[in-house]
Amino acid sequence: MTARKRQAWNYAPELPLRSAPFLHWPLRPAAIARHLVKTWRPLTSRVLMLAVSFALWEWASPSLSEAESLRLGWVLEIWVRNLVLLTVVAGGLHLFLQRHRVQGDGLRYDARPLTRNKSLFLFNDQVKDNMFLSLVPAMVVATAWESLAWWAYANGIAPHWSFDDNPVWFVVLLGLVPIWSVLYFGAGHWLLHRGPVYRYIHSWHHRNMNIGPWSGLSMHPVEHVILYSDVVLFLVLPSSPVHMLFAIMHHTVGAPMSHTGYDAVRLPVRQRFELGDFHHQLHHRFIECNYGGIESPLDELIGAFHDGTPDGDQMVAARLSRLSERRRAQS
Ligand SMILES: [Zn+2]
Ligand SMILES: [Zn+2]
What we know:
It is built from 14 helices and two strands. It is mostly helical.
């Protein structure tokens, strides 16, 4: 890494960032295998989200017979469970990393403090603003989408296959959920950057130039509706509720984790829990790049992949001037 880059970030992972090897032809089986091991090893946010999904499915979800009719009781139970889960994950990470700074700034991408005393944010405070938008509208929307999905499974609208119906498909679909999640998110996110939709809706999320765990779901309520709408996949593909929960957990648990602003949480015996997302951190700083994730082809297809290097800075500068020229021409 160059000296200039060291100044640009307090900490950066190994650069340049590269998109997932399964997106490149010819396919390199060894590289793909390494990528799969890296993204599915136990101490990662992905595996935690999967474990949480199974736990919720087993112990904190309605039965299919309960969900046959949309009743307030089980819907409220999902809402309370979502509130508790988000508070534990985002609140726990915030207290550990940002408030008490237990592991210092060693693995923090941008060491500047989160914003206070700025009228840009509700309550003039970034953390309070982010907490409000995450706990209030986000959890209502998440609960609504999940309840609809449970109701659809219970009434045969969503095709329900259990593990016993098709064990191979059950496992394959679990593997595909993260890919679906990033593809759907990337496409929706790119559209949210266009014209007035950005100005009125997505700019709420981009008030957060530097980010913390509560920033992950800090967005306009319309964007919450779009974000969680990826569960529509399960209206057409045969699946079990645990697949649907795994998709939803990419937002309720995944968004706070990917917005911590840290590359990892240090664990005893030199272990790390991988949860950072430098690719998305670049998006928060440079805005018109990295709309998807490293497992989505979108950014490379549209020439907006910022790999974290000075070349990426130049790419985004050229892209910004092209976009502003186009906006001038249209106005
Ligand atoms: Zn974000
Ligand atoms: Zn954005």
